[in-house]
Amino acid sequence: MLPLKEKDKPIIQKLLVAGCCARCILRFCCVGVQSAYRQPEQVTLQEMQAFVLKGENEKVQDPAAAASTGEDNNSHDAAEVLEGPPCKRVKLDPGDHADPSEDEKSNLGESQVCVACLGILQDLCGTNQAVKIADTVKAQKYEFDSLVLSISLPAQLCVREHSCWLHVKKEVREKGLVLDKDDVIQVKEAFKWIMQSLVAKELGGVAVVGKSGFEVGVEFTHPETDSDCHFLAKVCPDCFKPTKNKQSVFTRMAVVKALEKISDDKFLKQYPCPPARPACSCVPQDVQCLHVSVFIAGRYNKFCRSLPQTPWLIDGERRMESSVEELIAAPILTAFRAGGFNFSSSGREDVDVRTLGNGRPFAMELQNPHRSRLSKLEMKELQETINKSSDKIRVRDLQIVTREAMGRMKEGEEEKTKSYTALVWTQRPIQKEDIGFIDEIKDLTLGQKTPLRVLHRRALAVRQRVIHSMNARYVDDHHFYLRLKTQAGTYIKEFVHGDFGRTKPNLCELLKTDTDILELDVESVDVDWPPAIPE
Amino acid sequence: MDSETQKDTELEPPSIIDRYYTRWYRADMKGQPCEDHCILQHSNRICVVTLAETHPVLQNGRTIKTINYQISNGCSRLNNKVSGKSKRGGQFLTDFAPLCRITCTDETKYTIYSCIRGRLLEVNENILERPNLLLEKPSTEGYIAVILPKFEESKSVTENLLSRKEFESIVSKRDQQPQAS
């Protein structure tokens, strides 16, 4: 039996006449018993009508006879009702609505599209929909333990809800002193109560829960009544300011805000109460599946002097055929069947710089992965796949990490040290003894003006950076290898060639001759994240 | 390390200008004979204004008395400040905007111009203390100013300038003319 009380009767009567479906009436009666919504709508309607009739003298024909028309015919029927001749007469409360045509429309009762939910809690809420949702999820072959069902409703539903609320406000408040609009069960809520278990069943018992990393979204639109919201823009223009990324100013948020502001009187003057009857039900849009991102971390080596870290575009055209991030990402995206990625790393090297040693820490966000769990063994295999795919790069310590752990890579990045080897050219011929003094230099502080090389994208500033130590290895009378251990963020190339005197001191000054850098290798990036994984 | 490149560099010294910049020229600036300017445009569109080696300041063993970035009573290029990635606040320059005036010890005076449209990012304050930098290394440490052309004008700003080849042919003609007359 429906958990209805005597005081619900006037609410039920008014809303039946207004053209509300049985489930919406339960909502306005503030019925919070989920099972009441899960039983077939026709059954609920019959029980509801029986309940109202109990103790009443008026004779009422059973409107259930007109029920159970197929869902495909539903909108068609409703349209016919609007145009066609009156059928059976139902009189629940003749005093309430004097307009005879209004009564005629309510004749078919439940076979009409509900004025409040626009069909969402009627035919759009049942096994058929659950099958459709489950089929979409299955087709996309996601791996998941649980899912959360989300629902997006047309904004005008708020306007209609408000109109219905004003229609029965008095009766609802009489039912219980503390009851208010917030106590009316939301369409969304009722939809989920009904659908969660149905979808779970169709997916073979997967938990459909309130919170999950896997979200399945259903969206409904109702073009017929889109203009329901328009009067609000005149009453409350502040709430509907156009912004760049919005298709329409009538977002759900804006409509809710406007409805909070508008007085009942104003609303009633501009919008019918109860709302006008729609000809057809909402249109369900494509089911959208979205899995939360998975985060991957590791370290990479780069062995090639013609490989950029990220795709290099000039005037929209590619400069190099590949990049570190693409070489790493391709096998990972395949393994996780992800839709996209964001690559970040602890600093970056130039296209002509190699990264040797233990490599550079990197992390990747994998968006909408269809697979989110790989075992340690599978991760190791994935790492091997990457390493076999190209000899330009190599990856180690590949692992799944949390979003929070990714922050560890960036934090304190500037305090970390990095080691480099540079091949230096000198204009003046040198002897071994000429470069010996370099090894003695400790903690040399540089003032580096933003290098001209990056000045187009970085702010102009003089940055203090420390070279902790250096070591020079003589090659010939114009060349030597310079090893440097520096604070992260030191621009090595500019330290060597001086950048038009904008890095001071620079190697030209130290050696009292023009110097240039011919090759550069990153030997180590001393960041202790991600944790090493033993080979 | 590739031994080939090593040999090459011994024959021809490496040059950061050749590696990263394109040279553009303006000859006889504002009709003043031989007052040639050289603009180094980096592949990232940043431009460095320098004196061409043929500029009178660098000829006949002249030495510099003063370099003045105060180009009028109301405007000093030294007051230029830019902030943030977008370089807000920098003075916007057109082709013929003066950057500084150089007075040589022989009392000859020269005005150096921007040559390109763009935002002034910085002027070279090092040459104020050490004017010899300008004489010794006119195309690197002795630069005059750094200018950032508008993104959409990064190609067109150099349209009115001469390529290195065009400039060299002008200079060689110039060299021949006095001999002919």
TrEMBL record, chain A:
Domain Pus10 N-terminal eukaryotes stretches: 114-289
GO process terms (BP): tRNA pseudouridine synthesis
InterPro entries, per database record: PsdUridine_synth_cat_dom_sf, Pus10-like, Pus10-like_C, Pus10_N_euk
Subcellular location(s) of the protein: Cytoplasm; Mitochondrion; Nucleus
UniProt-listed Enzyme Commission number(s): 5.4.99.25
GO molecular function ontology, one term from the record: RNA binding
UniProt superkingdom: Eukaryota
One cellular component term from this protein's GO annotations in UniProt: mitochondrion
Compositional bias of kind Basic and acidic residues: 90-106
Family to which this protein belongs: Belongs to the pseudouridine synthase Pus10 family.
Protein name: tRNA pseudouridine synthase Pus10
Name of the encoding gene: PUS10
Automatic annotation (TrEMBL), chain B:
Main location, first listed in the record: other
One annotated GO biological process: dendrite morphogenesis
Keyword Nucleus: yes
Coiled-coil ranges (or none): none
Keywords: Cell projection, Nucleus
One MF annotation (Gene Ontology) recorded for this entry: actin monomer binding
GO cellular component: dendrite; filopodium tip; growth cone; lamellipodium; nuclear speck; nucleus
Top-rank taxon: Eukaryota
Keyword Nucleus annotated: yes
Annotated compartments: Cell projection, Dendrite; Cell projection, Growth cone; Cell projection, Lamellipodium; Nucleus speckle
Pfam families per record: GCV_H
Family: Belongs to the ABITRAM family.
Name of the featured protein: Protein Abitram
Origin species: Oryzias latipes
Lineage: Eukaryota, Metazoa, Chordata, Craniata, Vertebrata
